[in-house]
Amino acid sequence: MGLLCSKNRHYTEADAEENSQAAEIERRIEQETKAEKHIQKLLVLGAGESGKSTIFKQIKLLFQTGFDDAELRSYISVIHANIYQTIKILYDGSKEFAQNDADSSKYVLSSENKVIGEKLSEIGSQLDYPCLNRELAHEIETLWKDSAIQETYVRGNELQVPDCAHYFMENLQRLSDANYIPTKEDVLYARVRTTGVVEIQFSPVGKNKKSGEVYRLFDVGGQRNERRKWIHLFEGVTAVIFCAAISDYDQIEDEQKNRMMESKELFDWVLKQPCFEKTSFMLFLNKFDIFETKVLKVPLNVCEWFKDYQPVSTGKQEIEHAYEFVKKKFEELYFQSTAPDRVDRVFKIYRTTALDQKLVKKTFKLVDETLRRRNLFEAGLL
Amino acid sequence: MPMFQPSKRDGFVVAGFDGSGDGQVLDLDTAVKDGVLGGVVGGEVIAAAVGEKLDLKKMIEELDIPEIPSVFICPISLEPMQDPVTLCTGQTYERSNILKWFNLGHYTCPTTMQELWDDSITPNRTLYHLIYTWFSQKYSLMKKRSEDVQGRVSEHLEALKKVKGQARIQALKELKQVVAAHAAARKTVVDEGGVSVISSLLGPFTSHAVGSEAIGILVNLELDSESKTNLMQPTTISLMVDMLNEGSVETRINCTRLMEKLMEEKEFRSESISSHRLLVGLMRLLKDKRHSNGILPGLSFLRSICLHKQVRSLIVSIGAVSQLVELLPALEPDCLELALFILDTLSALPEGKVALKDCANTIPNMVRLLMRVSESCTQYALSILWSVCKLAPEECSSVALEAGLAAKLLLVIQSGCNPVLKQRSAELLKLCSLNYTDTIFISKCKLTRTIQ
């Protein structure tokens, strides 16, 4: 009997050890799964350059610790790159217009500036950009101020001049300083194509510091390839924040495609995905600040989707009217793309200017309220 | 044994009770007013009306104040005492509570834990008077305050101009209560420019909490033309549409009623209501099985919307037709008339006719409603049947006749309805009979259970 006992004991000891470890792991998994359930997941989607990453940065600035020195510095090369890219696009564009446009004379630069232009264009086409020093900055500024370049800039929508162009060009002195450290605003304007998936976790803690909801925000960036294959991984997200840059109505993409139409198609596609059957949709009609100024100069009906637009007045009233028109178009699209059984999912439209921190904060407060009410509703408490 | 001497000076308090002996004699009212016992806020005294015998129990219940002076509280129940009695130890309790204590077999004083050497319980008349007077004064104050509706309204409106966040929501809630309870309050709000104060709170970043309270107030007020125009701005309408989609049933009904009021303005542009979200939200209100009180205001609003031609097509496109048809059997007569009017209006559109025809229950429901509720209902139902049958005579006639249409039409023709209706019925009867031989048709005209 003793032998039997000891044999059993030996067996059970090792086993017990394993069992307790396994139990510990099980317990931890259960704990984390529980915790995960309370984290609301938000997916940011949208066409390229619609402002997704800017929203991302804003959330980071608002609800996390913002950017530390090292992170700020990491943006210096990005900002310099943006500047070189921009001036190159403008210079090359001016040459193209000078050749092809009927009114070519206004796109012709002065001979000194042509030299600068060639040089900068050459730099811009390299893989590595030189650091932006005083000298280069001065040359860029000179070129920027040339009337031909300014004329070209007016037609920026045909060349895909990035939105940060004006801001960076106006701040060249500061940006080229030897001890330059980017400000928060500079970082928000900086443009870099997002690759892969970026995520941050945050909690919008209110004034009374009560423990609020925990959100995890995902940005999948400009990934277009095989979108249909990975989108279903986001099934079960609480909400999709879809960014659409409404100022893009006159922007023409590479293959002569209008950016607004691309946005429209993408929105349509996302709405129809089975994985988002019960997901709330928050539509951010972004870049309102650019839209405001543009809509008074460039009529909305240059965009195919808005071709039935009729202006009614001028100034602020007209801006509001135009905005309402665009908003209605998106609403219409939403209901056309939404099957009857999905009509009950939350759908709200927000007017945003992603670069304005205060506005983003206010907007997000509303989004938070809506999602919380939705939770209460689904729990049967409302 | 020390005897408790009943106070000879009933209703009077000797200041300096604890032995410091000031010797000043105050009457009860003054004592309470001056805050000898504490708890009197603001020091306002309204002498209890002479002859008014307020019931202490009732007052305690109605007042529900948290800060009652501790000497008024029974140590056993922690409630204010209505019949205070004192034991030989000098401790005072509520009579019923201490008696219960004794009945359980205890002969000790609950707070001092001393064994009682005397089982007598003496009514503490002094304390009773104090309690009574204190509560009476509080009660009169409360009553006066609640009658001072104007004052409260002004107070809340002033608050709204300054505060934010939770305080703002609280002020709105209280104002809403006052406005709901007193007609005078409504007038005061309007007179003191409250409408623009509240309207200014409604903007693109208004939270649901604030918006729902604000709308709850505005909907009960008389709004002048300027205020209504102000509320018709796209952002405000958009906010109301949001709340129509997400709010509680009360909020949704308020939004519905308010938007309908705004539509009465001649400046109203139909573009504002020509919104998918608005119509979908409205239909959801109508279909809400848990809350049937939304149906009447919802239908009323939808009817007003229908009067605008441009929006009719949109209403049909969101599938409202079949949804309304499905609702019909459960509706009350006043709602039925509205619903039928809407469907009749929509039947004028080609897409409306198609939608009506495609809905399987249109014809049976319409047939059932003929001569059932009122002449207007019969008129609308008839008109709808006419539209549908004209669109697809063969298909619809057979369905209609199976549902007992013929007999109903005969009823109309033989009734005291107006001649136009009778004429219509005759025409419809003829239309339906075209595909049948006489004998078969006559058999279909027989009164069936459908009618009874």
TrEMBL record, chain A:
The keyword Ribonucleoprotein does not apply. GO terms for molecular function: G protein-coupled receptor binding; G-protein beta/gamma-subunit complex binding; GTP binding; GTPase activity; metal ion binding. Its cofactor is Mg(2+). It is found in: Cell membrane. GTP binds at residues 49-54, 163, 188-194, 219-223, 286-289, 354. GO terms for biological process: adenylate cyclase-modulating G protein-coupled receptor signaling pathway; gibberellin mediated signaling pathway. Keywords: Cell membrane, GTP-binding, Hydrolase, Lipoprotein, Magnesium, Membrane, Metal-binding, Myristate, Nucleotide-binding, Palmitate, Transducer. GO terms for cellular component: cytoplasm; heterotrimeric G-protein complex. Pfam families: G-alpha. PROSITE patterns: G_ALPHA. Its main location: membrane. The helical domain is required for self-activation. G proteins are composed of 3 units; alpha, beta and gamma. The alpha chain contains the guanine nucleotide binding site. This is Guanine nucleotide-binding protein alpha subunit. It comes from Durio zibethinus. The lineage of its organism: Eukaryota, Viridiplantae, Streptophyta, Embryophyta, Tracheophyta.
From TrEMBL, chain B:
The keyword Transferase applies. Residues 67-141 form the U-box domain. Its EC number is 2.3.2.27. It is an enzyme of class 2 (transferase). The keyword Transferase applies. GO terms for biological process: protein ubiquitination. InterPro entries: ARM-like (IPR011989), ARM-type_fold (IPR016024), ARM_PUB (IPR058678), PUB22/23/24-like (IPR045185), RING-Ubox_PUB (IPR045210), Ubox_domain (IPR003613), Znf_RING/FYVE/PHD (IPR013083). Functions as an E3 ubiquitin ligase. This is U-box domain-containing protein. It comes from Durio zibethinus (Durian). The gene is LOC111299923.
